[in-house]
Specification:
globular, twelve-stranded antiparallel barrel, mainly beta
Length: about 260
Amino acid sequence: MKFYIMLLFFLCLSVFEEVAAQDDLRAITTDIEEDQDTVYKTLDFNLMVKNMHLWRGLHVSNSPVTVADISYNSKNGFFKAGLWGGRSFTGEYTEYDYYLSFSHKNFTLAIWDINNTSDYPDVGFFNYDRAETSHFIDASLAYSFEKIPLQLSWSTVIQGRDTYETNTGKLKNAFTNYVEASYVILKEKDWSFAGFVGGSFSFLSTAHFYGDHPGLSNVGVIYNRDVKIMKSYTLPISATASWNTVQEYGAIQIAVSLF
């Protein structure tokens, strides 16, 4: 299983790099925290520090973390592939992911192999057995409207440690869904303010990847600001306030992009 997943990753990388070189498509942004004015780089590396790690309303780490992202980007914005890693200062949280994304007009398709080993310290890195693995593969489709600053997305866990037990005792994939709408409420030259609402559920089981029952698992706001350090350096900072009605908790995440 591990061989075929790695083979698929590198085949997609080579095939879509060629498609991207031939097809004149414009780039679109699918993350409201991303800087619209960054200079194009074929290979890019980013480092971020957070007071904690929030993801779709889940408290992935309650300790401060460092996050690194290495990516290849096609010049026309059609294709992106990268490696994403995170680790908490205390060492209890570690994550290492692969991802691919394809953007055409207002649509973006992204596939992530997410490997959070925090609760699976003894599982092999390439173990994809649903009963044992620390991996889960998440596929998402997003649409960004042109005339209004609204983005809609639908994500589904298609493989890995997202499971439920049938009446006969068999372990099956729950195919948990996460649906989100985000809207930029205010935007100025060096800051923006946005809101988002995200819900989670499974068509196959009451309990799912994000909690014990369907509901609004991620409701909140994001404030982004570019802080100028001296005259030549700008430090992007974001503050995210999130409420999770499924897990019944809330949190504020502060993130600083160092470069």
